[in-house]
From TrEMBL:
Family to which this protein belongs: Belongs to the carbamoyltransferase HypF family.
Pathway: Protein modification; [NiFe] hydrogenase maturation
EC number, as in UniProt: 6.2.-.-
Keyword Ligase: yes
UniProt catalytic activity: C-terminal L-cysteinyl-[HypE protein] + carbamoyl phosphate + ATP + H2O = C-terminal S-carboxamide-L-cysteinyl-[HypE protein] + AMP + phosphate + diphosphate + H(+); an acyl phosphate + H2O = a carboxylate + phosphate + H(+)
All residue ranges annotated as the YrdC-like domain in the record: 202-385
GO molecular function terms noted in the UniProt entry: acylphosphatase activity; carboxyl- or carbamoyltransferase activity; double-stranded RNA binding; ligase activity; zinc ion binding
Name of the protein described by the UniProt record: Carbamoyltransferase HypF
GO terms classed as biological process: protein maturation
Catalytic site: R27, N45
Length: 755
């Protein structure tokens, strides 16, 4: 039945609004909308979203406006209307929430809105108050303890509203109507600055700012955990933080207001919009203008910037007046610290002071990391501000409940229910004990919050992944079916699914570090043919031994040595890596000891980086060599041709590329140009193979996935080489393993449907 029509005698409408519509000011929006359209009735939150019962003469326009004019933080996925026999009333009333349940979305945390930012700097009772918020901003998911989203089910439950805040909370015309974390200095959380276990007197934020401006390091309690902050213009302070944290090279995130960001980075309109987004992600921007210490991001062409996203951040930035390093407060390899006692225990060796408060954090969430590319938004880490947003499933997949446990690195889980997928937040490396605890908490947390009861579990094909073993154990305990999904098939499916593809056959270029192939070898440079249910491998990088097994990921010279030897360039390897144990490594490869075959393009990047002197003997963090190689390539000028190669068969042998690289080294060609020629080589030859397979399989759709496509230069070059095709790329899900669980869930649904 068309919206707004009803049979004779049925004058009312029962309207169901689904989506992200709780905790975003949707009910007061409906109340105000009803007043303006002369509508009478009721609105309430319940387990499925927002339920409206309405009578009046302007119902059609009222219903249209429910989606078209929704509040900024709302995401309306459906407005369902049915005629109803309703008793006409004289007013429109907001009712209290319905019973518990978990069909509706929960709202991500949102950055401080302009109204609240102005209020903390104004003359009113919230001047300088670090916990100011309203329905348009503030903590949501990080303080949530249960559903439905009401104050009693948040970590604000222990703070009783004062009369002034209660009045705002209960007034439908106020922007704080039912803003669950609403507070003021009289009734809300309090802030303090402590050093050596003692709270300091005076102006708390001024004390923290003074410590930062005199070269100190301060632990700052944010929304999803603690940060470690220092003055980003102070090279000594930045280096001190690196030494204390034992983090020699991994880039630090930065925080500053937009006008300061513009002094140090290139900010176009798209980047400015992303920085100002309510999610307040860390945004990778090209470093330009006023220089900052090299130690902030050694060897990188970009810096990661975020705007202040809580009142506390705004007030601190106002007093510091300079960009601040704002990096995760954690021990190396562990998840971010969230509790005050935990911070004192683990961060006291790093910090000279603690800026703390007494509002508990219900769940730890790292900052999201994103960038703007020629292809649009790229998500590198999906976390605070983006979760627990959901993704619609592609048309044709069944509406069944599945849970997928992702991979070993950049772990995240995915729950599918009612035609939507909840891709959880970034967790990290599951070999770390506390990250594993966070994984288990995440599973229990999301399952409870979303009332999830899976009928099947999807896991990676690798039997030794901790998440895989956990999936099998849970399936055995609960009598559920397990579906093992090959790593690169899951990557391809994630990209297809994000773009809602629902065709017959697609091509997937999947380039990453490693993933177990069905043949038992280590894959990582693949062109796949198929769809959600199944794929086959049509092309790959020619495999080479992973010299030393897992050590090949940490020591790029090993990958360079094996590729140079294969290309007949052993003499060059001997010269480049004279300090490495070359003969022992070669002997192990000849004997087949700890040297599994791998087609990994990630390891190929490492090999080329090592040849150019980048991290040759060791990387201090995953992807360091490849990131430095990308930065080097972006500095190349003039027309650059790809290295030679043959992509006409089923494999790409990089030997000719390495011989060309060796000639360039001999000719003293700029390393920047060599790096760019290599990027062109990868993009050109994988694109050529994909186009050939597309023609053979009568498709124009080519999806790009895998961690190597976090490299914005490689992504752009590949898309250019595929001009004229329907090229699908990741935007809101990570191309790296952070999106793997989403792809696993889609494959599992497709296989459940056809089995």
């Amino acid at each position: 039945m068309p919206t707004g029509t009803s049979p004779q005698g049925r004058t009312g409408r029962r309207i169901r609004v689904r989506g992200q519509v709780q905790g975003v000011g949707y009910r007061p929006f409906v109340w105000q909308l009803a007043k303006s359209h002369g509508i009478r009735g009721t609105v309430l939150n319940d387990a499925e979203g927002v339920l409206i019962e309405a009578t009046g003469n302007d119902l059609d326009a009222f219903v249209r406006a429910l989606k078209d004019q929704a509040p900024a933080l709302a995401v309306v996925s459906a407005v369902e209307v049915e005629p109803a026999d309703l008793t006409d009333t004289e007013d429109f009333v907001i009712l209290s929430s319905g019973g518990p349940g978990a069909e509706t979305r929960v709202t991500p945390d949102a950055a401080t809105c302009p109204d609240c930012a102005e209020e903390i700097r104004g003359p009113g009772r919230r001047r300088g108050y670090a916990f100011t918020n309203c329905t348009n901003c503030g903590p949501r998911f990080t303080i949530l303890t249960g559903l439905p989203y009401d104050r009693a089910q948040t970590t604000m439950a222990g703070f009783k509203l004062c009369p002034a805040c209660r009045g705002e909370y209960e007034d439908p015309g106020d922007r704080r109507f039912h803003a669950q974390p609403v507070a003021c200095p009289a009734c809300g959380p309090s802030l303090w600055f402590e050093t050596d276990g003692e709270r300091q007197g005076g102006d708390v934020i001024s004390a923290a700012a003074d410590r930062l401006l005199t070269g100190g390091i301060v632990a700052v309690k944010g929304l999803g955990g603690f940060h470690l902050a220092c003055d980003a213009t102070n090279a000594t302070a930045v280096q001190l933080l690196r030494e204390r944290k034992r983090r020699p090279a991994k880039p630090f995130a930065l925080m500053a207001p937009l006008d300061i960001v513009r002094r140090h980075a290139r900010v176009d309109d798209a980047a400015a919009d992303l920085l100002r987004n309510a999610a307040a992600p860390v945004v990778l921007l090209e470093a330009t203008g006023e220089k900052l210490p090299e130690a902030i991001a050694p060897g990188q062409a970009t810096l990661g910037w975020m705007l202040p996203y809580t009142p506390l951040h705004h007030l601190l930035c106002d007093l510091v007046g300079r960009p601040m390093v704002m990096t995760s407060g954690n021990l190396s390899g562990e998840p971010q610290v969230i509790g005050n006692d935990e911070a004192r225990e683990k961060l006291s060796g790093f910090a000279d002071g603690f800026l703390m408060h007494d509002r508990d954090i219900a769940r730890r969430l790292d900052d999201s990391i994103e960038r703007v590319t020629p292809q649009g938004l790229m998500t590198l880490r999906r976390a605070r501000g983006r979760v627990p947003g959901t993704l619609p499933l592609p048309h044709g997949l069944p509406r069944r409940q599945v849970i997928a446990f992702g991979g070993q690195m950049k772990s995240a889980i995915c729950l599918v229910k009612n035609g939507e997928a909840l891709l959880g937040h970034h967790l990290g490396e599951l070999d770390e004990a506390l990250t594993w605890e966070a994984f288990l908490q995440s599973e229990a947390d999301y399952s409870a919050l979303f009332d999830h009861r899976p009928e099947a579990i999807a896991v990676d094909l690798h039997p030794d992944f901790r998440a895989t073993r956990h999936g099998h154990d849970r399936a055995t305990a609960e009598g559920l079916r397990v579906l093992e999904v090959q790593h690169h098939h899951a990557h391809m499916a994630a990209c297809l699914g994000e773009t809602s593809w629902h065709g017959e056959t697609a091509i997937g270029i999947v380039l990453d570090g490693l993933g177990l192939g069905p043949d038992g070898s280590v894959w990582g440079g693949e062109v796949l043919v198929g769809g959600y249910r199944d794929v086959h491998r049509g092309f790959s990088l020619a495999p080479a031994p992973l010299m030393g097994g897992d050590r090949a990921q940490a020591e790029p010279w090993r990958n360079a040595l094996v590729r140079l030897d294969e290309a007949g360039l052993s003499d060059l390897a001997d010269r480049l890596f004279a300090d490495a144990p070359l003969e022992a490594a070669r002997s192990a490869v000849r004997a087949g000891v700890n040297a599994p075959l791998s087609s990994s393009v990630g390891r190929l990047f490492d090999a080329v980086a090592a040849c150019l002197g980048l991290c040759a003997l060791g990387q201090s963090f995953e992807g360091e060599a490849a990131m430095r190689l990308e930065a080097m390539a972006t500095r190349a000028t003039g027309s650059v041709q790809p290295y030679p190669g043959d992509s006409s068969g089923h494999q790409l042998d990089p030997s000719a590329m390495f011989r060309g690289l060796a000639q360039d080294l001999e000719a003293k060609v700029s390393h920047d140009v060599i790096a760019m020629r290599f990027h062109h080589f990868v993009a050109t030859h994988f694109a050529a193979a994909a186009m050939r397979l597309a023609a053979e399989n009568d498709t124009r759709t080519i999806a790009l996935s895998g961690g190597c496509f976090q490299n914005a230069l490689l992504l752009d070059l590949t898309c250019r080489a595929l001009d004229g095709y329907d090229v699908l790329t990741h935007h809101v899900t990570p191309a790296n393993d952070g999106g793997l669980a989403f792809g696993q869930a889609l494959v599992a649904l497709a296989q459940l449907e056809t089995d």
